[in-house]
Amino acid sequence: MDKITVAEARKAEAVGRHVRLQGWVRTRRDSKGGFSFIELNDGSCQGNVQIVAPGELANYEAVVKHLHTGASVVIDGEVKTSPAKGQATEILASHVELIGNADAEKYPLQKKGHTYEFLRTLAHLRPRTNTFGAIARLRHQVSMSIHQFFHEHGFYYIHTPIITASDCEGAGALFRVTTLDPDAPPKVAGKADFTKDFFGKQAYLTVSGQLQVESFACSLGKVYTFGPTFRAENSNTPRHLAEFWMVEPEMAFCDLNDNMDLAEAFLKRIIADALKYCAEDMKFFQERIDPDLLKRLDGVLNKPFKRVSYTEGIGLLLKAPQTWEFPVAWGSDLQSEHERYLAEEYFKCPVILYDYPRTLKPFYMKVNDDGKTVRAMDVLVPGVGEIIGGSQREERLDVLEQRMREQRLEPEAYSWYLDLRKYGTVPHSGFGLGLERCVLFLSGMANIRDVIPFPRTPGNAEY
Question: How many domains is the chain partitioned into structurally?
Fold first, then answer.
């Protein structure tokens, strides 16, 4: 007898096999004919497999007729062709074993509609629902595609530190890491003395692995990092998390155009793999979450990305026949409404905006000859807006030091980073893609808290 998954049992080629299934009961209904139907799911796919449990089973009255939603069971039986519409197979059970019961009155995920807000309070159980099972499988596939894409393109996977003393973005939204006693820290001149701390200095959770991965790009050529990042922004919105995952590739001897080429190919690969390997889940998202999803993804997959300078984009927004909630002006950052207008309404395709004002971007972005803009880019897609942000890095030592001072950063604190410009400096570029923002885009979900297993947001660090 073969142990197989529900996904395998639902395939027509499984007919005739004697198998063992393990999973959780979604529903049970009893027939007047003296048998029961059990809908079983094990998380391997979107759909359930129907178990036909005949009344002749030794434990039919004592166990089968008392199985409730959420109970875990082991089923032995034969895969049969199903006469029911909408399913290729069903299992004629020869043995049903109850492993773990679920109290019918207390189990919180009974077969009925639940709001996403309610399910966020049950983050440990919500993966058992159709929506969050699909999100978990999609998130897994996206992660696999990320690694496969970069491996096939000659990139090396680098593990950058989670604890750092560097503020990559220069915005100061950092989570401090300390072992000092918060009630009685050692002090010097009235302030906490961090020389007595575990690392001998102030340390933080990383907001990005970019600076560290640049050093490997300047040695190995093409590298990427993929891991958790943390930002202590008090942004309690459907688009922000305090903890999220970022993939950040970096390429030596590459300019912004090379960077844009890579970003476009990368995003298209992720979409293609999701449609290929998560077809059932993507169909579910289309039917239950966003009816325009597959059409929108097809447009991103099969249309070339339009490349437009920030200055051109501002001009188009100023001429747009609509009123903006946030005013448009050269030198101001674009908001989601501006980004989505360009991608969804004006160009009706993905857009890469480039050459942003230097005042909007971090110190490490290469300054253009005009002195006013930097070689930055943002990839905008319909339905989401910005999904990728990147730049060509500033490889000139004197300009980089000047940019640091502009943003009130002390170059001495980044001496190791400046060494990359002192010893064999090269043009190099990279970008960042937030995994959760990507899954949000691929699934059509509206709230980023619903595409990560255990969301961390202001006031919420449960589990």
Answer: 2
In this structure, the dihedral spanned by the alpha carbons of residues 433, 434, 440 and 446, taken in order and rounded to 10 degrees, is -130
157: Cα within 13 Å, side-chain hemisphere: 13
**Is a pLDDT exceeding 90 seen at residue 86?**
no
Q: How far apart are CA 314 and CA 372, in angstroms?
A: 15
**Range of the structural domain that residue 240 is part of:** 126-171+207-450
| Distance from C-alpha of 76 to C-alpha of 67, rounded to nearest angstrom | 16
My answer on whether 92 and 133 are in the same domain is no
Residues 91 and 130 in one domain: no
* Domain contains 181: no
Q: How confident is the model at residue 172 (pLDDT cuts 50, 70, 90)?
A: low
In a domain, 197, yes or no: no
Residue 200 falls inside a structural domain: no
The CATH number assigned to the domain holding 23 equals 2.40.50.140
Task: Show Cβ contacts of residue 370 under 8 Å, excluding neighbours closer than 6 positions.
Answer: none
107 within a domain of the structure (yes/no): no
Tokens of 305: 């990305």
DSSP notation for 340-386: HIIIIIISSS-EEEEEEEGGGS-TTBPBPTTSSEEEEEEEEETTTEE
Q: Which residue has the tokens 């009816």?
A: 291
Residue 347 shares a structural domain with residue 269: yes
pTM of the full structure:
0.95
Give the mean model confidence (pLDDT) for residues 147-166. Answer: 96
Quickly count: other Cβ atoms within 10 Å of residue 412's Cβ.
Answer: 9
pLDDT tens digits, residue range 63-76? 999 999 999 999 99
Split at pLDDT 50, 70, 90, the class of 171 is low
- Asked whether residue 254 falls in the same domain as residue 328, the answer is yes
What pLDDT is recorded for position 67?
A: 97
